[in-house]
Every structure is written in structure tokens, then in C-alpha cells.
Amino acid sequence: MRPVEDFSNGLFRENPTFRLILGMCPALAVTTAAINGLGMGLATTFVLVCSNTIISLLRKVIPEDIRIPAYIVVISSFVTVVQLVMQGFTPELYGVLGIFVPLIVVNCIILARAEAFAGKYDVVRSAADGLGMGLGFTWALTLLGAAREVIGTGSLSNAYQMFGLPQFSLKIIYGSYDPALITILAPGAFIMLGLMIGLMNLLTKHH
Predict the structure, then answer these.
(1) CB atoms within 10 A of CB 85
(2) pLDDT tens track for 2-60
(3) How many other C-beta atoms can be found within 10 angstroms of the C-beta atom of residue 127?
(4) CA 111, chain centre distance (Å)
(5) Which burial class, exposed, middle or buried, applies to 203 when counting CB atoms under 10 A from its CB (0-12, 13-18, 19+)?
(6) Model pTM?
(7) Which of 44, 54, 64 is nearest to 106 (CA)?
(8) Cβ neighbours, 10 Å, residue 44
């Protein structure tokens, strides 16, 4: 059952955002809204799973001296696919995420899993590791973005508008709400991330 363990590690015990503290640039920069975190997380998950799979398949034929450049070529190929798909189907989200989509190529989570895992283990375990790490990154960014958006604006308007859902607002629930705008600014990103890392440590300290 090693693939199951590899998958679950990325979700919680070795969560790249809250436990390994990797990929901080997109985690801090794009999480002004829940939908932004979800989009970045899913894009990264796709690249992680595909690159881990291909690198694992080629691990025995890639020369040791050029393994890092080879990994980057594989990763950048899948990032290009993500860019084209997002530009074609979700141009608004792509515009919001901006430079952070092509920068997935050098995301330390992806390079770290390629070097530490996919370059050493079989395809099934590598794909499971990539999926777990990617979804762990996705739920962490989505949660961080949702918290910042709700506290900073009082609603999840971006996500609800994109999916055509009824509007959610703290003003509807509580009658009045004064948004704490700092949470959607740069200092708020660090504050909310620190609080969530602390909460994650508290919840898992006995495990």
C-alpha cells in the first residue's frame, strides 16, 4: 500500500504549504481569493502528476550529469500545456494568476519531488506522490485564499460568480460586516499563512 501512503503524505503529514513550507511565492501572491488558489493549485497538480510520471519512466535513461536540465525540460513542457489550456478556457483566471503560471516551471515543490522522488521510484508511486502533493498544495492555497477573501471583503464573490452560485456574504448572515482589508494585502498574506501553519502544527502535534 505504499502508493496510498505516498498520496496521503502530501495531503497532510508532508503538506507542501503548511508543513514543508515550499512554494511560498504563489501561496502568498495569488491567494487574494479562493478561486485563485484553486486555479493555481490545480495547475500545479497537473504539472506535478505528469512530470513525476514521465521523469519516473525516464529515470534510468537520463544521464546523471544532465538530470536537472532534463527535469526542467519535462516540467516546462507540461507548464506550456497548462498555459495554453488556461488561456483558451479560463482567460480571466489566467490574467489574474499572470506570471505565476509560467513560473510553475521553477516551483520548488515540483523540482523537489522530481529530484527526491520521481527520479528514484516507480511510476505508480511517483504519480501518487505527485497527486498527493498537488492536491495538498491545492487545498492549502484554496483555504488560505478563502480565508483572506472572506475576512478581507466579506464574501466569496469571485468563486460564486465563476460557478454561477448564489452569492455568499457575511453581511447577509450577520447584517453588517466591516471588512479587514489588510488580509487581502501583502502583510495579510503573511499573517494568515502564519496563523494557518500554527493551527496545522497544533492539530497535528500529537500525530
Answers:
(1) 13
(2) 889 999 999 998 999 999 999 999 999 999 988 999 999 999 999 999 999 999 999 99
(3) 21
(4) 14
(5) exposed
(6) 0.90
(7) 44
(8) 28
